[in-house]
TrEMBL record:
<keyword id="KW-0812">Transmembrane</keyword>
<keyword id="KW-0472">Membrane</keyword>
<feature type="region of interest" description="Disordered">
    <location>
        <begin position="43"/>
        <end position="82"/>
    </location>
</feature>
<keyword id="KW-1133">Transmembrane helix</keyword>
<feature type="compositionally biased region" description="Basic and acidic residues">
    <location>
        <begin position="43"/>
        <end position="60"/>
    </location>
</feature>
<protein>
    <submittedName>
        <fullName>Uncharacterized protein</fullName>
    </submittedName>
</protein>
<feature type="transmembrane region" description="Helical">
    <location>
        <begin position="17"/>
        <end position="38"/>
    </location>
</feature>
Amino acid sequence: MVEIASDGPQWWEVVGALAPFAALLAAVLATVTAFATLRQRTTADRASLEQKRRADDRAEWGAARSGLSTQRPTPGLLTPRG
């Protein structure tokens, strides 16, 4: 009969036991990153819309002061008179 003395689990057994934890950690990090990206995009979109709204307001006021119409004809829909 042969007896093998063991000092404890080998390093690959420890790594194998931690694999599910590593997968869970990766999923959590991916979720946090996705939500951070979503929040950043939402903030950027809101800022862009606000900037566009302000530019549109300035354009309307400028056209009203000069007597110009903000409505422009669509190219290609006008027929030549003749």
